[in-house]
Amino acid sequence: MNNYLKTLRNMDKDDLLNLVGLETRRSTADMVVPTLTAFSVGVLVGVGVGLLLAPKPGSELREDLRSRLGRGEQNSPTTGSFPQSATPPAPPRVL
Question: What DSSP designation does 77 have?
Fold first, then answer.
């Protein structure tokens, strides 16, 4: 009997729950954090491989990156500016 009490005292919560066939509940963070970590590592590896396989030499690539990052969004292609010849004039309305 004394042996059983010593064994029970040395058990932690997970051991006791396992003894009766249960387990602790996992929180959402326990599932999300490893997923986000794997995704982040995958993105970083993808960027690294993309830079390594770029068609330009390293010095040109670094210079291009510096110039693009230095300009910021001023000359970005997504600013919505189109050349005048790209949009045809609207036809006149007939009433």
Answer: T
